[in-house]
Amino acid sequence: MDSPRTARHRDRHGRGLRGPLIPASLPAARTRAERFDDIVLDVVERVEKTWSAQLRGTEFAVEDVPPSDPAPWESAGVPLGRCFAADSGQPARVVVYRRPVETRAVDLADLEELARDVVVEQVAHLLGRHPEDIDPTYRPPL
Asked: How many helices (H) and strands (E) in the chain?
């Protein structure tokens, strides 16, 4: 027969059963990094609808943080993204840095807007255009 002490506690620390709170099949079970990837992918798809010919072969990526050796023109703080022109057989690339973008965002709507702005700015730089040309809803930061 179980003692009252054993019946009350499910494990030796008294914390109860352990396991996932949300089943993996539900959208809420996705990690922050996966949700951020989805946000950037949505932005890239919108930009590519208009600029697909100019962006043909361009790779888009998300990295957690920028490298510790900033480019000479990036002395103003932590970059939110970078673009790399095609070079020596390597395709052009646009990289968005997840952690700096998430740190600056206040909420989900702000995160989506900031991710959009970063992608638009990097694509504009890559194509030698103004961000407003890439996305007419772009508003420069104040």
From this structure: 5, 3
